[in-house]
Structure formats: structure tokens, C-alpha cells
Amino acid sequence: xNTKNIPALVMLLAGFVTCIVLLLRGVSxxxxxxxxxxVLVIFYVVxxxxxxxxxxxLGAVKKLDEDEDDLAQEPVGEREDISLESDEEESxxxxxxxxxxEDGSFDDxxx
Length: 111
Fold this sequence. Notes:
With about 110 residues, the chain is mainly alpha-helical. The protein has helices spanning about 5-25, 30-75, 80-95. Helices cover about 75% and strands about 0% of the residues. The protein is rod-shaped and about 95 Å long.
């Protein structure tokens, strides 16, 4: 999505509303121009902040979509299943911790 025009659109919309309100109130020209300038600057900054927020959120969504597409295109046999590897390592560690006699009985002295 093209977000580079968001600050300008927010600024111009705020400027238009300000012009209408100030014309209806009948303020002097100097007050009109100063108020309009202040509103345009403030709402330009607000528009830039909005654009940054939208760009970050769209970037995160695009990254998630790309990751899902990569997983969907990868064959099942080639995927790494980390949970299975960690389970095997845990079971090996557990076997090392148990002291078994040669006949298969447990060493009761450690308990």
C-alpha cells in the first residue's frame, strides 16, 4: 500500500475544516493565516506519525504472510521439527541420569 500521501491528505483535510470554521467565525486575516499555518504544521506531523504506524503494521503483516507462504511451499519431509529433536535430547539426558544395574534394576541408594 502506498502511504506516502497520508501526511498531505491529513494536513489538507484539517486545513479545509479550519478554513471553513474560521471563515464562518469571521476572524481577521492575520489570525486566519497564523491559525491555518499552525493547524497545517501540527496535522502534517500527525499524518507522518500515522504513516509510520501504518508502514510498520503493514510490514509486519507482509513478513508474516511471506513466512506462511514459505512454509506452505516447503515439502513436509524437508521441514525441521525442532520439538522432536528436543524430545530426543531430553530422553537421552534422562537415561544418563538413571543408574541401572546390568540386570535392569534401579540403584535405590540415590533415591
